[in-house]
Amino acid sequence: MIPVLFVVTILVFSIIRFIPGEPARLILGEKATEQAVAALTEKLGLNEPLLTQYFLFLKQIFTLDFGNSFTYQMPVSELLASRFPVTLALTLMSTVISLVISLPLGYFAGVHKDKLGDQVVRTTSLVAISMPSFWVGLLLMIVFALKLKWLPAGGWADTLPEQFRCLILPAITQSLMTSALLLRNTRNSVVDITRMDYVDFARSKGISAGEVRSRHVMRNAMISTVTLLSMRMAAMLGGSVIIETVFSIPGIGKLASEAIFGRDYAVVQFVVLLFAVLVLVINLITDILYSFLDPRVNL
Amino acid sequence: MKRYHGASPLERKRSMPAWLTKPSLVVGVVIVVAVIILALFPQLIATYDPIATNTLASNQPPSAEHWFGTDFYGRNIFSRVIWGTRIDLLIGVLGVVIPFIIGGLIGLLAGYYGGVLDSLLMRITDIMMAFPFTILVITIMAILGQGLINLFIALWLVGWMSYAKLVRSEVLVLKDSEFIQAARVAGFSDARILFRHLLPNVISSAVVFAASDVVMCMLTGASMSFLGLGVQPPTPEWGSILNEGRTFITFAWWETFFPGLFLAVSGVGFSLLGDGLTDFLRTKGR
Amino acid sequence: MNPIARKLTALSLAAVMGLGLAACGGGNDDAGNTSTPDATGSAPAGETTYADQIVVGVTQEPKYIEPNAPGMGPSEVQVSQQIFEGLVRTGDDGTIEPQLATDWTISEDGLTYTFNLVQGVKFSNGEDVEPSDWVWSLYRARDYETSNYRYIADSIDTVEATAEQVVITLKEPNAAFLAELGCFNMVLGDQSYAESMSDEEYLKKPIGTGPYMLKDWTQGSSLTLGANPYYRTEGLPKTKEIKYVLVSDDNTRMMQLQSGQIDVAPTFPFSLAQGVEADDSLALDIFPSTQIYYLTVNTTQAPFDDVKVRQALYYALNKAELANAIAGEYGAPVAAIVSETQGEWFNGDLQVTDYDPDTAKQMLADAGYTEPVEFKLSIRTGSTFYEQIATLIKSQVDQAGFSCEIELLESATLSDKYSSLNHQATVLQWVDDYQDPSGVVGWTVDYDQAQCFYTGLNDEELDALYMQAQAEMDHDKRVEMYQEIQQRVYDNANVIPLYRNDFAFARSAKVEGLEVNPFYVYQAMNWTKAN
To answer: A131 φ, ψ to 5°?
Structure first.
């Protein structure tokens, strides 16, 4: 993990500098004069050799002093600290919604395998997988914010309850694909559990049906659920770029895309690094869970 | 770890032939064939020139004249959506075919020979997969600039890894199996073992993944258009039509609704086809 | 100054004084949930109550507040102007009004300006204004390294101040100087406060003498201005807090306006105007602006190095369609680079050519072009406005002997491209910063400022004419010179004005008192929102 992180820092650092465009000119805006561009480039330290800039970046990582954002002119650490909880809340909320939707529905579909209910649930989940999230977000916004006026049409609020309300529509949008995939997974697990021949076979070997369920089927079901969830959480972190743009939510996804488009090197470096670290942490947790669920897996 | 955009093969392995009954496969095939026809012969179906503007007929709701209404420039949305099929299908297909071939090949070689190639592959994928997919694509697009070709390059750069890892893991399982050992003993060349014996046996899971990957590529392409990184205007493409219509969403729903609907329906078609294919390949395999 | 303008100035002066007097009557500052504005007096007292806070939904957050900061744009200026005041300000009708100066005299040679100051002015931290603050502030406007607007203060040679007077001496006569003083960066800051912190910090949380002060700023989400307790006119500001919230998407802004989450939406897109008009609880205010969108072409590269090709564009562009499609009734096609909102400076003799593809084709054929003239129109992504303009331009010129390809670039890539003259054509816009045409004209003809609006056309005669006009103190002669300049830019056809549009502010019907001057400056202190 450490060597991976190291290469990630090099990658992050160099990638952003491959992107064409002068940050100073962008900050100065449409009426930028040449004198001001030159003065600002100097001030931002962008005239330093690349290697010097890279070592500064490494030093910043180790001292946890991330420097200042070009566009916001505030410490990157503060920026991340204020934006990250928003995305975290969004991702967790989406995960919870996904679980709440997919587990009962998946169970229902599995129990009523191939009956009308199963067909409906399965088809719906398939449709959900195939829908563009930003489109769904816009439709939800029209219905629940514009027509029914139940929820805010996006944006952010000052108080916690209001912030929670602001996250409902984005979280539902975000959870759509995760719910659908988890639902299918749950349904198949349930189908497996209820498949009698499987249980019969085990019983013929002298193992009780209950034991079979808890030992094999449930464990397999857990492993696949954990795998799927970890993949989806990483994907949802990335998806936050789009969802947060649609709903104007100040999280790290929106920050990342703004920083990339705004050539805010200072922010891009750390926000992309943060994403990488988050994904690695999710993977680590998944691996630990695996080792609990499946003793054969060695860390 | 592996990253699959759609349903994971883990899940697929456990899904049984009964998972999908035949009608859904039929529906999937019908949709996909319809999409292909639209993409090949848009001029036969579209009623208007998709890029001719007529600002006098701006933002008109659906009518007998304009089935899906008109957009800000007075262009017929039905015609734009029909013409857009071509680009979106191209994104879906080309976004998958190239990574499928290149990634599959790399996976095959890495899995079979192991060694430097294999560890290099694993390191690269480890690093690349530390970035969320969307962030990776956006960053690459920011370097390359907006445009269709650049969108393809971004999708290819990111897409091949899933195939490589998928094929590699299958090869690792098979390479020590009896029939490959037998082929080796029989003195067949590596090329022959790789392409005649291994490839047919490992390709099915990649094919299954590819079907859901088509959907993901189409959605990603549309998302990039949505963020302003897609095709150059006035080229009709579903994501960009949707993005243009988004400005008027408060009073002209038809401009976002129809392109999104086409995107969703074609996505469903490919998903159904992919699921049907899973069953088909699995039953055939037994 | 023309007679009408003078009258208006007098009127507004009277209004300010009237307000002051009225305020003296009702003078206690209540701390309750609502406050009653003392002003207009049309509603019987006690019936209408007013909210303490007005929420403004902006699409872009300010980067800084201090007006010499790098990259001052509309989002910065609108906040900065609530906090800072200058000697004079540009009124809502575009005339120069006194602000911290009561009156002024100009020496015979046009070099020395003497301003008499309003007395008893305090900064929002309670400190008195020191004469040295004036000296420091005006030099800062002239010298601050990363400011784009140094040129506005460039003619200042020396500044001297006493408690009663500020005396400014110019390097050479500058006819536009008083107008330039009305620009947003020629304002008074507190030197000792600024020097008590790092410069970066000061750029973000400056104080001034204006009606508001920065109360809270959560970057990326909202910025709140609170009333300046030391503001010299009691009863102002009428609303205690102005809160700017960031809503980057216009549709979300529209929805939030409808649901009452925000009260005012500045620079509202015209495409959504019909939604506002259809809603009884909302209103749309339209203010004349100096905003013009231009097609600028790179004259250092083919095909636009040929003046005949550039002139053919006049007939290949349907400016009327552009204006109508994008700004509807709030826009109009234009031919001169100076906005007609600038009044007499505007050259009204220049006529907008009618769309005539055949003439354009003929002109190209006469110039020796038999094939469609290909060019790439580079515009920035993520802006509906620019995309709409480009798409319409393409569809127009493609029928008139050109073949246009639209290239969408991210703003960073685009600005690199045009500032290094590596592009062929782009669309840019301009809003003047003060009541004088020298801003946009300098940008267009003075090569050093912006390579002649990024067209690379260095017409030295024209540049000389502009320099001469700047120094000309005779008003009528100066007007004549500017008319001439506009005619010659028109003939050069490197900067092609497309259309002008008004500023549209959407607001809740409960909000009153919105006025915006042609340079995108407003005074939030006059706003009220009925409960």
So the answer is: -95, 140
